[in-house]
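Format notes (please read before filing issues)

Several people have asked whether sequences and structure tokens are stored in separate files. They are not. Every record keeps both together, in the order shown below: the sequence lines, then the token lines. Line labels are part of the format and must not be stripped during preprocessing.
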Amino acid sequence: MTIYIIFSAVVLILLLLVYVAYRESNNLISETARRSKVAVFPDQKHLAFENVIFKNQDGITLKGWFVPAEQESDKTIVFMHGWGMNKGMLLKTTAFLQKKYNLFYFDFRGTGESGDGKSSVGYIEVRDCSAALKTLMGTRADACKSIGLYGIDVGAACAIYEGSRNPLVKCVVAQGCYFSAEQIALRRKKEKKYFLSLPVLKMALYFAKQRSGVNAEAFSPAENIAKLEGKAVLIINGADDELTERRDGKKLFHLAKEPKELWIVANAGHTQVSEVSGEQYKNRLQAFFDKNL
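Then the structure lines:
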């Protein structure tokens, strides 16, 4: 009788864990991002700009800014922000590049000024990235003879994915980039002090893949960085980044093909690279795009 009770209890616990994992699969790699208000605009930086409104393949309205170069240029840098961030946060730290290049900033779905939509670890956002470049080519082809991509966090994963497939992309800057979709999904839960054990989270990832019909790993930087096929890539990581650790950057650098650069910024957290490195950050980005774009 005792053995039967123990067996029944174990089965009940296992079923409960499977149920919890199944429910958690709804949000593990696809959830609503924290929407932050856009607080920095081009005119605050005394930059001329054009509002750009376009739709992605899912019919969601996305909003961005096209900032023309100080002197006419056929080279454009496209910026992609991180999870829960917005285009203004990138403009704040990269507007200096406008002296030589056209700049294009946009908000992913569910963030900034763009329409509502689920966020993910990159496999959803790549559609927004593709729509942004398609819009640029359809409306400003003369300004996009050569394209550079800059992304942070999820935006970095999208930059690597798009760069590996778009022949117009000449170079990629990937800052605070995670190594794999599964890894970053698990770390997000750890960051929130989530109580589920690793085996249950792994099970939830399996259910998420089966239910969505999407293999998120296929969009991972680890799967795509080598496919940049000789396009220049600059990988930047903060030495104190706990979400996308510096070992992630080192592993991506190892997989990347030449030409490639790795820059680990001492004393910098996940989104603190520009703040901590100051002028060195500006000089490093300017030199990279001057050389490769």
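For reference, the curators noted about this record: Residues 46 and 208 are 45 Å apart (CA to CA). The chain has two domains: 1-30+195-214, 40-180+220-292.
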